[in-house]
Structure formats: structure tokens, C-alpha cells
Amino acid sequence: MPEKSHTTRPVRLRVLLVLILAVGCGNAGNEEISRASLRAEVQRNPGVPFALPKTLPSGYRLTSAETTVKDDEGRVTVRQAYFDSDRRETGGSLVEVCMEEPGKPDQCGPAKGIIHHLDDVDIVLSLHSGSEHDSDAWRQAVFTTNLSEVAWLR
Predict the structure, then answer these.
(1) Assigned domain for 127 exists
(2) Domain assignment of residue 154, yes or no
(3) pTM (2 decimals)?
(4) What digits encode the pLDDT tens for the residues 25-66?
(5) How far apart are CA 92 and CA 20, in angstroms?
């Protein structure tokens, strides 16, 4: 039997994540995602912190934030957040923000977007559609794991 490649795991994880999002997990009942709910999630599932932009790029809103991967000890190694925009000039866009343990690349899948590094987390952003202006706004965004510094989060 051929040996399985370790590179298939991130692809399978991304497929699983897409399936989870397709059934609406992460923001059940359309409840607003709040600073308190994110802190509670990290407390329930310790590990990689949520990293969010201090200032939200214009026209975007947070639609989902969740724990997606845990290691064998139950510690979170990957979290995801999704932002969307319905601005007419861009035809709408989706930004996937994947947070992974620093020094352990490819947990979010192959890097194909904008990458930010903080002391306690690496952030991989994937912009799906949108304009060059959107891409620049997310590239220049300042991220933090201190949710008290996230001005737009209630």
C-alpha cells in the first residue's frame, strides 16, 4: 500500500472546513459574534488565539469565527474567521482569515494569500474575489490577539 503524503492533510482539513461552513456552523442562529463569545470560545478550547484586525476594512463584517483543528491533546492549533462584503462595485467578496501556530506552516493549507506574523500566531488571509483596493486594505490591516484592541468588535 502506498504511503500517504503529509501534504494531503491540509487539503482534507480545508474540504472539511468548507463542509462545516456550508451547513452554517460557527454562528448558529445568526447571533452576533462578540468579544465575549470569542473569549469564551478560547477559554473552552485553549490554544491558538483569535487574531483580528484592529480596524475592519471598509464594507466588511465578521460572519463566522470558530475552532477548526485540534491536536491529539485537544489543544487548538487552527482557528478560522470569515469576513464578507456585499459592496456592489466589487460584486461581493469573502476573506478567510486562518490563524495557525507559529513555526508550523501549512496548517491552514498552502499559503496562497497575505501572511501576517504575530508572536503567538501566524495569520494566513485568502481573499476570494474583491478588488485590488480590498487586497491592499487587508494587506495593510494591523492584527492583534488582544480582543480589547479590536475597535469594531462589540
Answers:
(1) yes
(2) no
(3) 0.77
(4) 344 445 689 999 999 999 999 999 999 999 999 889 999 999
(5) 21
